[in-house]
Amino acid sequence: MGFDVDVTLDRGGRTIAARFAGAQGVTALLGPSGAGKTTVLDMVAGLVRPGAGRIVVGGRVLFDSAAGIDLPPERRACGYVFQDHRLFPHMGVEANLLYGWRLARREERRITPDEACAFLGIGHLLNRRVRGLSGGEAQRVAIGRALLSGARFFLMDEPLSSLDPARRGEIMTLIERIRDDLAIPILYVSHQRSEVERLAQQVVTLG
Amino acid sequence: MLTVEEWDIVALSMKVSAVAILGVLPFAFAVAWVLARGRFVGWIVLDALVHLPLVLPPVVMGWLLLLVFGGQGVVGRWLQEWGISVMFRWTGAALASAIMAFPLMVRAMRLSIAAVDRRFESAARTLGASRLRVFFGITLPMVMPGILAGLVLGFARSLGEFGATITFVSNIPGETQTLPLAIYAALQLPGAEDTVTRLAVVSVVLSLVALALSEILARRMGNADGI
What we know:
The complex is a heterodimer of chains A (207) and B (227). Chain A is 31% helix and 25% strand. By secondary structure, chain A is α/β, with parallel strands linked by helices. In chain A, α2 (93-103) packs parallel to α4 (135-148), α3 runs antiparallel to α4 and α4 runs parallel beside α5 (165-180). Chain B is mostly helical. Chain B contains ten helices and no strands. Chain A binds chain B through residues 45-47, 72-80, 82, 84, 86, 88-92, 99-100, 103-104, 129-131, 145-146, 149-150, and chain B through 119-120, 122-130, 133, 137-138, 141-142, 225-227.
């Protein structure tokens, strides 16, 4: 049960349109910069409201302009991993990890903090400040924070772009394990063919 | 050391400034929020109104307060129906210094609200936080240094308030005679130089303590939060 998205949005005289459905695993959004890839992720997350259309993920209707359904972001249970990780600078690593976990109801939690730390190899970072983390560490903490928030699907916006090649391989392995071991569908934005070929089951080209 | 009367002046000044700043804080924060985040018709007008006390001569501000809150004023008459009058009362002095401190507080808070990276707010939403929770858990801690700066600036401005206060509620010992008004009154009397000196020293010390306090608070918060 993956993504079933059909949305359009008029922005500054341009129309952003995306239509894709079906596949399990990783769905990659490819396209030149400015094609609206991030905007599509924002629409699925509920941060940007589509002009019209329908967004269904794993059988849950998140948005349907015809039916007047528009779940707010906090009720969509998405794990959004941003290009710039967006860890909260006024909290330490542990507080960042637990931010969404504390807000999730018991039955929404799919993983415990201990499991997440083991899975991501970030147990030794818990008492660190966000500012001192390397790019790879910060991205792993960001993925952990999203996992712990009870995410039922992931949105990843060029999560490897700020990393050096060695760390890229590491995070890609992690993404594959989220895809395979945890069976969480992932919508993945990139402009790197090689990343997409390794990770994606389905490729959607925008713009 | 200070005489009993001088201690009373200091205590009255602190009371007036504290009540003024804490009372006006929610309004200043709300206006700072609207000016930082909102874009609407009349934005320019609100911005200009907020800054009015900063650019008008304080005496004019005091006269305007008399017009509005005096016995014949719109608000003054309404207050009198409830048996309340701020005329020649310490509450009037607090009102005057609150209004004079308002623009400085708004400016400090508005800058820090505008500086908040809103991408952190949307990240928090996707993690399951409602708008209200995002405000208290993410936005407010990030603007806290600006709120503290606003409080200290406002408090300092309020301690020094003279023109609007003396025009609006006069210079009544024990009721509206705050530090600057007392210094001014003592300067009119022959042989009161010692009083002037002592009260001036107190003013300097109070201002420095307020500044140091805000610096310490800001650092402590920064350390605790890993900034």
